[in-house]
Batch of 2 targets.
Target 1
Amino acid sequence: MMQHLVFLPILLPMLAAVLLLLPPFGKSIIIRRVGSVTLGIVTFVASLALLVKAQAAGTLVYAIGDWSAPFGIVLVADPLSTLLVCLTSLLGIVCTLYASAGDDEKGSFFHPLVHFLILGVNGAFLTGDAFNLFVFFEVLLIASYSLLMHGGDKRNTRAALQYVIMNLVGSAVFLIALGILYGVLGTLNMADMAQQVSQLQGDDVYLAKIGGLLLLVVFALKGALLPLHLWLPNTYTTAMPVVAALFAIMTKVGVYSMMRVYTLIFGDEAGELSHMAQTWLWWFAMGTIVMGAVGVLASKDLRKLTANLVIISVGTLVALIAVQSIEASAAAIYYLVHSTLVTAALFFLADLIGRQRGNVEDHISAGPPLLQPRLLGICFLVAAVTVIGMPPLSGFIGKVWLLKATVNTEYSMVFWPLYLLASFAILFAIAKAGSTVFWHHQATIVKSEIATSAESARVHPAQLVALIILISAAPLMSIFAGPLSEYAIGAATQLHDFNNTIKVILSGGL
Amino acid sequence: MELLYAACVGLLVSCGVFLILRSRTFPVVLGLTMFSYAVNLFLFSSGRLSLNQAAVLGYSTEYADPLPQAFVLTAIVIGFAMTAFVVILAIRGRADLGNDHVDGQVIDKIGDKSKNIEKNKKGKVNV
């Protein structure tokens, strides 16, 4: 049983999703909610167990159907991938909990779809095979298409149509890249690919380069990197906020894939092709940060603001990947966890604030006073301090670490000012948004109008619990920064340990 | 054979890309389908083109690479599902937005966005 642990974070969400479609769960929404949250917790516990085991053992390799690598598909659970699996499962629980306050009734099949999405994301994190990565991408994408439409109106349909078409083209490009790489390397197992890349000669080198850079295009699309980021603000603002919070992990799948491909396959040992994407990554990352900062300043409502914060976080992460050092990767891992949780919390807050302000919703303009200004205000303050990167919360640690990791690099003279200016833009935009939303009230408020909508707009206990779990991550990540950063450094060391990774994966692990 | 094959893939890709860049959903869906056919053909060729070679052991002296065939099979299945989804989505978009443009807006002339979503919803659709 224990050797199958690696497979459980993929198997359990699938079983959960299928179970939730069955008749016993169809009768009452209460049963479905309780079942969904419980099954989410089961997945999370399995992910935690895997994390503990992977940390003790280094890298766990699971050959599906007992076909050993490089011929069969392997799942690879190392400290990095298991950490992200845990993060995904946690986010899944939080989102189902939040949606249980009523959002899940706005359309059908919310809970199964969430579990299918978790299945896809966990699979993408765990797989050690490039073609399998494509399959899991499709699984998570089709779940995300349906979730995007969930409880939607007309604006939703348009955003979904554009998102689906973009991603279908992206998938086709992904397949072309895989075809080229397979034709040249003769394998799609990532460890084996890494080994073959250094032995390429003649024209094959250029073909492999084309394949590798096409992969960059695909991951840039999924991760919303500069020229391909245009879908993100629209998609994230038209989706229900709870879905947008869940999507916070999806851009990170693209970033994670970049991390794997450009440190393992096209990393130090790739001969002529080593670090071939580095320059591209730098410039795209910095462009993304600039675009995100401009977007943050121009945002007219809180959800769009948060969507632009997601773009900035992607840019930051990609810049760290471009550095290609253990310290930068460790900083990226810490920053990735922090930014996923805080953006999800901000999406929740934007939703809760929007509900209490009647027609003004979450627009950054004067409106009726909030029903629970203290509760939401404190949560907003904590989330704001975290996302801006002010001491003492997790954002500050992440920021200092990433600045330290980029100090001795080629582009630090450009990156530092850009990143600090972007931070300033975030500070300014959030301070303005917060003071407008919480302190500027319209003088002409009809009291009765607010009273009628008052009770339904109060924060539901389930929403509160979900929000507090996400918000409390910021101080916790700062209090336990020591063990967490050690973990991140360990995971990053393993990510960069080329020979060991190859040996473990190709020999079947364990 | 290689030339013919490559020309086929290239033609499909160029038609597909052209159609994807159109503004109405139907040509876009057709374009996506063509593009995915091209991709499937391309993926199949990544195992090298050969004649009279079985992919199963014991049926010929030389073997074709079976893996690309498995890739293509997977890609076809996923492509089918995605095409079905995008067709339904396009129909829903036609119903919700009142027109079949990917932007949800009919633009007669450049810069003229007068016939937007709201107007189309009320009046007849100007196709």
Target 2
Amino acid sequence: MESVQVRRSFICCLASMILMLAGEGRGQPNAEIKVGGIFDLTGITSDVGKPFAQGVRDATQWVNEHGGINGKQIKLVEVDYGYKIPEAVAAYKRLVNDNKVIMINGWGTGDTEALKDSVNKDRVPYISASFSGHLTDPSKTPYNFFVAPSYSDQLRAWLSWVKQDWKQKGRNPKVAFFYGDNAYGKAPIEAGRQFCKENGIDLVDEEIVPGAFQDATSQLLNMKKKEADYAYINVTTTGVSTILRDAKKLGLNTKFGSNPYGFSEALAAVAREAAEGVTGVMPHVPFGENVPGMKNLVEFHNRQHPNEKGDALYVRGWSYVMVWSEALKRADKAKALTGEGVKAALETLQNFDLGGLTANITYTPSDHRPSTKTPIYMIQSGKLVKVAEFDMPRKQQWLGM
Amino acid sequence: MEFFLQLVINGVVIGSIYALVALGFVIIYKASSILNFAQGELLVLGAYICLAITSSGHVPLPAAFVLTLLFAATLGVALERVILRPLIGEPLISVIMVTLGLSSILRAIVQGVWGTDTKPFPAVFPSDPVMVGPVPISRGYLWSVGCVAVLLLVFTSFFRHARAGIAMRATAFSQQVALSMGISVRRIFALSWSIAAVVSAIGGILLGSIRGGVDGSLAFIGLKVVPVAILGGLDSVQGAIVGGVVIGVLENLSGGYLDPILGGGVKEIAPFVALVLILMVKPYGLFGKVHIERV
Amino acid sequence: MRCGDFRTTYGADMAIFETSFARGCVGAFLLLLAIVPVFATTYWLDVVNRIAIAVIGAVGLNILTGFTGQISLGNAAFLAVGAYSTAAFSSRWNLPCLLVIPMSGLIAALIGMAFGIPSLRLKGLYLAMATLAAHFIVEFTAVHWEAVTGGVNGMSVPAARLFSLAFESDRSLFYLILPVAVLLVFFAKNLFRTKVGKAFIAIRDQDISAEVMGVNVFKHKLMSFAVSSFYVGVAGSLLAYQARIISPENFPLTVGIDYLGMIIIGGMGSILGSILGAIFITLLPELLRLLSGAAGGVFPGLVQLFASIKMGVFGLAIVLFLIFEPDGLAARWRTIKNYWKLYPFSY
């Protein structure tokens, strides 16, 4: 009996080792360009992480089917890190040192910030889905990129909309911020505070909400005391929905706005009536929007996933690939398919047109703000409707914050 | 004053959801001395099952509700049989760990089947709130208060008068004595797990409709309710309910009054600080049975 | 009992190594470890470093939970205390790492003792809850005490420095982490040959009897909390040196739970078990990631599914272990050893 068990555990060990080696040792042909993907498919942000990863995956395949990178195929080596920073660091080390990827498409704010020194040292362009303004200053984070206006510019744009929407002449509009106690939640807050101060907006209240919650009444009551006219919610979709529903329950007149990870097709579906009239920044257009770049995307999506509905997160993932695949093509033409080469190629992108999926993208060696145009959308009878667009100036003192 | 009243009343109704989930903890603990850390995932599973039944077929909501509860009951029995029974008599920490392992298995199953995106939950209740004095309350919470009141009555009389309830208490007192009295301890364990799964499924459906959508993050409530169960005393039904209300009110008051002073986030840790302080005075919770050791 | 296994002195009975062969084996193993950086890739070195750090933390937790019987769910908090102390000491005063590491451990020990005070009155699950509270309180402090911790943006940690040496790469860090781990493991092994260690075990087995025998229960419980948190703090300190940037998001509750998993899968109340458990829990996600990555490469449409499965398998491994091998890997190791001892004449 005992010996059978012993043997069994040995066989198990052997089997797993063989499998592991088999996974490691598969040879790769030379005409492949390896790109790393660090996504959240199972963690607390997987509700938005999954469609984003799907978009990246599909767009990579689409590029491969349409000529690849000057004939070379892209191989996306992806890792699910479950929104845990230590796992992201481990995944990064494996992708860079063992898989020898040339660049990485990343995800969250916390892990991107944790990796910024490493990507700089290893010279690996790290294009993440975190739009944190901290990542836009090439003198500090030369290898970090993203494809959208920064969180800070988005908040500034939303505050500009507030100014435009505010018709009462007697006093300044009063604004409140809701955010989570984490790197993503706090990323644009300092920029928002300054913008309010400089532009005649009274920031009357800041409320902190936890990562997952089912009730925000006490925070909303505190905000009600301060009589905020507008409030910006910087958490993800379910959190935004909870706040909106509680606000509706309390009968507040405050007009709410939200960020690109809280405001998408899903918010209208989840918060229902409470979402009516809510505004949000949408750096990437909703799925199916009538823009030239949408045709390929919708066709491919409907071919690959006929039973699923796409959303703005999918569009976001797709537009990421459009940007970095272009950079890879340019780097390849310049015979510089290295991390440095791809960085240099990204920095040659001038007004790069994504067919309207997002604003045109420009990176320069001294400024990594991809674009400054932020469209504002509003939920009107369950649909996302564009109501305004604001272009923030590329002020030098705003670089990196 | 109105501010205070709003905070307190809101705390009470939120507390009722905590109490509901804490009941699941208590029932399992009462019968088998297991603290089930997978309670939150059971709740998520319940919500998803209900969602799947309503959205796939043409099943009316009440029928879907009953079907969900039946499913939860079966699941509870199955979990007890497959995973928990082999661990009877193992040290406390092994049992804690196995329920933690169970929670990640359940999470994987939910993700594998339903994906990770937030799924809109059918509108179970009308969205306009009910006014309690000057305080508006969502209907979902009102239902949860009702559920808790009913369950309190049901469980109190169950443990006092029903054969199975008395058998459960006997089992909790001493498994050996219960066995020698002809009580099937296994059946009692299975019963307690299915009751706990049913209670969590009710919680899941209520929470799903309150939030308007279901996703994996709903499971956070499982961890959140642990201090509730401990505060009330792990083996007391009344304790769970009092604990739920106390924590709900405490959270809201600290959120309302301390958050602005201390810069936010106090609401989250207030229950834990209170828990430690109260445990220092009453080491077995407010209503828990004091365990007297004789050597 | 095998032949020839008899001892004539207490010294022999208490020896860490029963035979000089065992001593030789451990020595050879350490030598082998020392040359790992020569042939391991950076990624696997990183894994080995994380295993060594996990070993320190797991031994620490085992001292508290496995040997003294006090359940702690707040391990991530003590890791965070160690890591933040390291960040503060080394970035503010630029101290050498040989000073910073023990100092971080001591600070964690102090905090650990403070959170151990409830153990005077609390037992079992109720104590576990008090340590859970410790976790949330430390997390809250890390987020809000911005002057010291840098808030949600965290702090960057300069490379560990010893005189003119700087431990920058995973390769050089290995030679910092491994000796610390070996030293602490031997300290722990020795601890349980002393009066204090035996008092810990007595408290675990029956605290009231221990008191009757003259063990000061509260003092020893606090000592156990202190020693355990010291270990975890040192692990946190090394983690900080390895990660180079730390933020509150580095220390979620799940980290503490992983450590509990380590000592349960490895074996409660066993130093060897802590080591095996740390190896197992650190390697399992890596292997699963390799497998799910390979599987995802073969079936690209199912990447999402494999990611979910990966998470489930982790839970499944823990459940299966607890059901089929409740005494942990250490017990399994003994079984295997005994099998080969008698090979090929097993009965």
